[in-house]
Amino acid sequence: MNRFIAALPMYDWPEARAETDAEWARLRDAFRAAGIDAPEHLARQNADMPPVPGGIRDGEGNVIAPDPATLPPDEFDLPTLWRHPDLLFAQACWGPMELGLARHVRVVGQPDYSAFEGGQGELYSSVLLMRAEEPSDLNIPVHGSSRLPLDLIRSKRLAYNSDDSMSGIIALTRDLAAMGESLDVFSQRLETGGHRRSIVAVAEGKADVCAADCRSWAMARRFEPASGRLRVVGWTGLRKGLPIIAARGAPHYSVPL
Questions:
Q1: How far is it, in rounded angstroms, from Cα 67 to Cα 15?
Q2: Rounded CA separation 110/26 (Å)
Q3: Which pLDDT tens digit goes with each residue over 132-151?
């Protein structure tokens, strides 16, 4: 059994599972060619993480995450994954990194977003989406800097994935602040648990607007029928894309991302 674990959870939609596995197979082979015993398969649930009796601890002995064996086996607790001492390779988010995760991990790389509208190398923008009440030719093209339509979004209901998401709410909060506004521009905020769920919530009328990173929006246009009922009304400014992280005790390496 391999000592290390790896995960690519951020874009691992069910419809793209084969693509994610192929991406990991390429990376796994590169690790093994470098002499690192990378796991055969990705971790996708708590049961895939090795137990850590007594909980995961930092260098001072403080418990910073539970023993994965104590969690529901078929769920996937990302804060525990990110802090696991056997983590070799995983996508994370700069929101949790800013909120303390960075103290416990090492950043080993950044993905390239150039293949997606709204991406420029290691940088990406989040797209702002509302229901398509008008033809799609009203879509706002990506510009690189923040383009938030205050008249359209004021007093509307915002759907977002989680409070610690850079792409779903933190970037939007900071761009609004630069305009002298705040999240109070929205009448309500609905936490959905994921970008896809936010997109569906807007399409179904449970919310009026959401923000999603440009790669998630590209995936939604491929796989989520509800995306066809939305239109682009704005963009956040460019920010660093997802960090690739490893446990501080993991071997140092350089593999092609």
A1: 30
A2: 16
A3: 874 444 456 677 789 999 99
